[in-house]
Design a protein that fits this description.
This protein is mainly α. It is built from 5 helices and no strands.
Length: 85
């Protein structure tokens, strides 16, 4: 014998019927906390703050980086010729 019962209800109604707790307030609190942390961390990865953290430990680091990038793209030879003149 086979019996099929079809119940048409929302997930909230099913949870209430089975006595499961309502997790909506907890989910809202967790999502608010997550949003606050994400907005705080977005400020940390802004270009200005990244440059400040990268260049604070050595004042000559910016010049060294510029020299490195110049030599990497092949303009190092042009820069050396200009310095020799």
């Amino acid at each position: 014998m086979k019996v099929n019962i079809e119940i048409d209800c929302t997930p909230l109604e099913a949870r209430q019927f089975f006595g499961l707790p309502d997790l909506a307030p907890m989910q809202a609190a967790v999502m608010d906390k997550l949003q606050q942390q994400m907005t705080a961390n977005i400020e940390k990865i802004s270009p200005e703050s990244l440059m400040q953290t990268w260049f604070t430990f050595d004042p000559k680091f910016a010049e060294r980086m510029q020299d490195m990038f110049t030599s990497m793209i092949g303009l190092g030879a042009l820069g050396d010729n200009k310095r020799k003149k």
